[in-house]
Amino acid sequence: MAGKPKVSSDELAALRQWRVTLPEHGRSSANVFAEMFQRKCGDADWSGGRVFSLIYPTGRSDVDSVLFEANNAYLFENALNPLRFPSLGIMQHEVVGMVSSLLNAPTASGAGFSAGGTESILLSVLVSRERAKAERGIERGNIVFPLSAHPAFAKAAFFLGLEARPTALASDFRADVNAVVDAVDENTVLVVGSAYGFPHGVIDPIEELSEVALARGVAFHSDSCIGGFVLPFMERLGFEVPAFDFRLPGVTQMSCDIHKYGYTTKGASVVVYRESDWMNHQMFGYDQWPAGFYWTGSVAGARAASPVAAAWAVMNYLGEDGYVELMRGLMATTSRLREGIGAIRGLRILGEPIGPLLSFTSDDDDISAIGDVMDDRGWHLGRVTGPSGLHMMISPLHAANIEAILEDLTRAVDSHAESRGAPTRYN
Length: 427
Description:
This protein is of the alpha/beta class. The protein has helices at 9-16, 29-40, 61-73, 86-102, 117-136, 152-160, 177-183, 206-216, 231-236, 306-342, 367-376, 402-419, and strands at residues 110-114, 142-146, 163-167, 188-194, 219-223, 253-257, 269-273, 284-286, 294-296, 347-349, 357-362, 382-384, 389-393.
């Protein structure tokens, strides 16, 4: 969670006990929106570039205009039935194709559109379970994933009746390959690695992990929900990026969120499989309904159409060169923040983050207390544990605030040092 909650636990408890009923008479739109925007004043102001999670804005009005128009054009359509709305089916096909190409998936691959990374991961685990059942006769399987992997893998195991086996991290916060090897057995249906992970922004040893899975005949998921629209463009800019995608023979499936660094509105994600036939395990068909045959490849039935349209529009608007240029500026911003944080007394970056995400801690002071001071100064930083640290998911919008946040962070460190009588920069 970014920052401290704005509502106390007592207020939340009281809110849960308060039941709202439908108003007897309608209200004017002016009255409705006045109340809505008044409430919204208490939300984090992401547009000011002070929120470092949950939102991925480019800070460009032209991109925002494309998203507004695409969303509004498909505000009422239903993505459940592409036969009724063929334009959606075509756009969805093109979006998953572009993402598959970006991840170097083979031409015989299959892919599906989902509402977000959690759904992509859930579908991937479902396919892995069903493949293991059909191909290896496994009835009660397990999935093996590093502790830093997204909780959606544990959630998928919970939903799908699988055993979750989280494994230890190495000292650099990447997956410990030996721990993964020890956890895999004859009932393992999926091994996971993050490219890259949310807590520290480090990329797991995907090649080694995928080789472990390949040798055991187990599916391997390279989770690129964050990195899918980062790492390919870093490669194009000449950054050294470890192998992480379908160029590795052991990678059988991947997830990639477009609503992160693809810069579309939520929720838009893609899950890609090395072989198109595996998509059959993701599909659900039901022919006993009086309303006709029901056929869907997602968790939801009715689905918002606007995320499909917005993803298609922004990907075509930016193109490869647009994403490369955004990444160029984003990595420059990240580099300046890393250097600035490293120059502040006692602060240290955790691990070796590869892209525009980092976490840092303090060797001298209580980093959580420093985070509280930053909250009070209006900065919304995330939190990590083991060790405790502050978390920053960096977007292009943050470029304008580099000096401001570094100045406030320096003062936050010094104010904590003053409280314990230590010398500070401002003494």
